[in-house]
Amino acid sequence: GRIYALERSPTSCELLRKKYSDNQKVKILEQDLLSDSLPRVDDALWMWTCFCEFQPKDQKRAIEMLDKSVRRSLFVDIPVITSRSNVTFTDGRYGELKASWANLQVYFPEDSDVREYAKDTDFALKYSAFYKTDTERDRMMYVLSKENLQLNEAHDKLVSQRPVVIIEHYN
To answer: Distance of alpha carbon 59 from its chain centroid, rounded?
Structure first.
């Protein structure tokens, strides 16, 4: 199948296009998740801090938009709130993420937040799984699936292993 990579940074898109120029299955889309229409896909993987870069109302809106384009399951991978090396918390789950490429206002959701975001969609939070990356970073994977579909062996296998990273962040 085809792999779509959504990225709103023109610089990152150009780097990704160069990296995957020989792979006809990978299509890099320079667009904003909240303002552009999305391609129809069976499953989607949303990785790294991207989800946390949205404030709660926009996290909910993003899940609602993805509900229109994702047929089966959405996997949301985020840093765990205890991984505070480059986050200064200002109020509960709100904070400022300081990275070499930007300073961002972030919000780290809990299971109850993700459940609430999915409430007005066909998604349901099936489960969340804590794991550590190869670089010992704490991560949380939220698995949302359309309520009328059961998670199959392929989904279970994907979540039980470390996620396959198909997009890299460039500094």
So the answer is: 10
Assign 158 to helix, strand or coil: helix
Q: List, in sequence order, every residue forming a beta bridge with 144; answer none if it has no partner.
A: 74, 125
Q: CA-to-CA distance for 98 and 83, rounded, in angstroms?
A: 13
The answer for residues whose C-beta is within 8 angstroms of residue 127's C-beta and 6 or more apart is: 143, 159
Per-residue pLDDT averaged across 77-93, rounded? 78
CB atoms within 10 A of CB 112: 9
- pTM of this structure: 0.79
CA distance 21 to 27: 9
Q: Which amino acid is at 167?
A: I
Residue 13 has pLDDT above 80, yes or no: yes
State the Cα–Cα distance between residues 72 and 148, nearest whole angstrom: 9
Structural contact between residues 164 and 3, judged by C-beta atoms closer than 8 angstroms:
no
pLDDT digits (tens, 9 = 90+) for 103-154: 889 999 988 999 999 999 999 999 888 888 888 888 899 999 996 545 455 5
Q: In what order do the strands lie in the sheet with 102-107?
A: 87-91, 94-99, 102-107
Report the C-alpha gap between 156 and 77 in whole angstroms: 15
The answer to whether the CB of 94 falls within 8 A of the CB of 104 is no
